[in-house]
Design goal:
The chain is an alpha/beta fold and 144 residues long. Helices cover 56% and strands 12% of the residues. The two termini are 24 Å apart. The chain is built from seven helices and five strands.
Length: 144
Amino acid sequence: MLYIDTSSLLKTLWEEAESPAVRQVISLEAMVVVSSLTELEVEVQLQAGWLGGRFSQARYRKYRSVFASLRGLAPFEFRELPGTVFRQAIDRLTADGRLHCRTLNRLHLAAMAELGLHRLMTHDVKQAATARAQGCEVLSPGMA
């Protein structure tokens, strides 16, 4: 099982340099877990892209439609997170010592722990380093 964060999942919705590599890895996985945190972040990023003028309202609706269709598409599995994910993030912050990554990235790592997952797909360098320090396997398809 593979946990996918927002930085990687968005590459399945629109084209970036890493998009083909991300899609290839996903196609080889038995299960790709999309947490409710990832779902929220994707929706926020899509709305920000539209409201910020990066793409039209029609494109925004299309991206949302494609994202919604992942819910019933293998290998994606959407999972809700418990409220304890916040305590998990706080506890891991202390344990990680001098490793820094942003709050949402820490919440993704805590979500993985809450869901019992140890494999992460991310394109966030600091999150990847923190995940590796916590003993997780990290995939960043298409990154040099």
